[in-house]
Amino acid sequence: MNLQAAACSCLYSGLELLEARTLGSVPTDWRGLRGQGAERHLVRNADYCFAADWRFDAPRERVWAALVDPPGWGLWWPGLLAAETLCDDDAEALPCWRFAWRGRLPYTLRIEIRARRREPPSCIEGVVSGPVSGIGRWQLETVPGTAATHVHFEWHVSGPGWSRLLSPLLRRAFRRNFESLMADGQRGLAARLAEASSE
Predict the structure, then answer these.
(1) Element containing residue 15 per DSSP (H, E)
(2) Which domain holds residue 133?
(3) Total structural domains in the chain?
(4) What pTM was estimated for this model as a whole?
(5) Per-10-residue mean pLDDT, the chain, length 199
(6) Which of 72, 116, 150, 158 has the fewest CB neighbours in a 10 Å radius?
(7) Residue 112: which CATH number?
(8) For residues 11 and 46, what is the distance between their CA atoms, to the nearest angstrom?
């Protein structure tokens, strides 16, 4: 498999978890990273690449409003234990948040995410720091010919040293944990959007 094919496999194979270190190049569709050394480095040197796709029978603007309100995620996303806004979106800076997550694995992951690009209602990117570090993106598109919304999620992250050492053993557990969290999120948001539309 050449590098371009590996990158496409990593980014667009749904809930597939791959070792991104094997890619050797930065995916070209990460617009805005070129020339930004620190954040470009996060993608190039990520240990893992996660991807997921969601579809909702709701307009893109409504889905966007839910996704850019992390403190409200706890109302519909099982696994999110806490979400706190550290800085609001204003003229001086993009927003940043602190999260506590718990999936199938027996530990609580506490991270901070700082938005680095925000283009309503189509794209938001953020940089994560904490026990894991990396960069992620939500991309929203209206499904052609419908009022439905497709959401594509990508996450390029690196873990602590112990996770790298145990990666061959833990890869499946990491993947299942991610799958579970994302599936719960999709079901929860779908129900939330359906409930709001019936009010």
Answers:
(1) none
(2) 3-197
(3) 1
(4) 0.77
(5) 33 34 37 50 72 97 96 96 86 84 93 94 95 94 97 90 70 87 97 88
(6) 72
(7) 3.30.530.20
(8) 13
